[in-house]
Amino acid sequence: MMVVNAKLALLLVSVAAFGYPKTALAYSEGAPIEVCNDLMPQHGAPAQTTDSPYTLTPNRKSVKGGESITLTLASKDFSKFKGFIVQARDGNDKPIGSFTPLPASKNNNEFKGKWKLLSCPDGPSNNTATHANAVEKSRVVLTWNAPKTLDLQSFKFKYTVAKNGGQYWVGKESENIAVSQTNPGSTKRN
């Protein structure tokens, strides 16, 4: 009887330690390159199907080639989150543009160390922003830079936010960002 109990205890410990590794292993230092295409965390739990409590808000609704957009990722209901991944995507669902970190200053110290850059395939360097740690965040501010040549009419930002390893919302989209091909008020020279 004692041998059976010892075997059962060993089995339970093994299942607890090794049977659910994906659930326990969230990516605390940022999303891995493997999630670049579908933005699906490899947390081992299914994605949430409810409306996301998080929004990604751009500071402008249109952009020209070479300009920047400031994005704010935040909660609608003040709930915190631990992880995220954000990309700008063209009509073919490929990453475009690049992110840059905010310069160090006393005004943005709140955001320092909350995110880092990732260079996903099929796009330019630093085309993706992701969390840098598993510290709870109430909001993150990102700076995205349009490529100098932006031959599109519009694009969207796609993002995934993880409240924790078991609760996350995948592939959410921002509103359309219009692309302005010329400077307002510019004149042509012949």
From TrEMBL:
The keyword Protease does not apply. It holds the Pfam family Reeler. Residues 13-190 form the Reelin domain. InterPro entries: Ferric-chelate_Red/DefProt (IPR051237), Reeler_dom (IPR002861), Reeler_sf (IPR042307). Residues 47-60 have a biased composition (Polar residues). One of its GO terms (cellular component) is membrane. This is Putative ferric-chelate reductase 1. Residues 1-26 form the signal peptide. Keywords: Signal. Residues 42-61 are annotated as: Disordered.
